[in-house]
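Ticket reopened. Same input as before:
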Amino acid sequence: MPAPRLRMRVPAPAEAAAAGRRTERRREVLARSKGRATDGGAPHAHAAGTAGAGGEATNGRIPSRAARAPRRGFVSLVGAGPGDPELLTLRAARLLAEADACVYDHLVGDGVLALLRPDAERLYAGKERSNHTLPQEDINALLVRLAHEGKRVVRLKGGDPFVFGRGGEEAQSLAQAGVAFEIVPGVTAACGIAAATRIPLTHRDHAHTLTFVAGHLRDGTMNLDWPSLARPGQTLVVYMGLAGLPELCRQLVAHGRAPSTPAAVVQQGTLPTQRVVRATLATLHERVVAQGLKPPTLIVVGDVVALSESLFPAAVPAAGLALAAD
Ligand SMILES: C[S@@+](CC[C@H](N)C(=O)[O-])C[C@H]1O[C@@H](n2cnc3c(N)ncnc32)[C@H](O)[C@@H]1O
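Engineering reply: fixed in the latest deploy. New output:
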């Protein structure tokens, strides 16, 4: 009798790639549900309900040990970028689509939140200037609680979680509670706004040093290292500095920066509502008041600010626009 023929179907390359992606994806989800953090965060143990893992139905049978184990929660501290949803990372977009719960700050726009599942829990944590909707300790406790409930949690923060975003404090609290977590970087406001306004933050002819500072006012003053910030040859980017703008300009000039140094304030950078005021250290505050700018704003000081106009040549169309036919 002839030996039976073994028939094999060789998958097409695109099909094989898709299957590979599915396997990779399953491994990733499994690792997450086991609470394995990619950055060394420790998995945690916690009590949960009597349903099987992830709420599986058991149909009266004794569930396996794996199925009896509670689903472990996982927190992703995700940078949402400066506002334009297209500046999100692919990882941030995927995590939003998978999240059971999302705790978000006030600078996170609707375009980003629209990527959540319709049934995902949305929890507003606030943090507008002088109007902290939830104190930081309560936000920390909320993240731990949601993770202990076995949820995939996205903690969504404007810009990058580790740039003036209290991501460090939230990561410390999760680590202390033994909750598995990861950090997903985002485009920080300085970089998003530099691109949107065409202010190159460094340039070999103008700025070799780039400094980010928080410009909070405490008792009407800013406690900053003025001699170092006033040194020429650097670009200074000030977050949260609008209320202290006159003090900022005054101190930089008093410590040696030329009053003619170019400077700009950008409101709601990267969004369709973006507004930009360009002036000098001597005139910036007056111009900003005249234009009525409101937070969120970012201040950029340095010679590079003067370059931006030359980077908007009238003859070159903006990216994405078709050239007009002659
Ligand atoms: C609490 S800090 C958070 C910074 C954020 N983690 C980041 O990396 O951009 C908030 C400040 O960032 C600045 N900021 C954030 N997004 C901005 C935007 N789209 N336009 C202007 N400033 C922005 C403002 O100075 C605002 O007060």
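The chain has ten helices and ten strands. The first strand starts at residue 74 and ends at 79. Please confirm and we'll close it.
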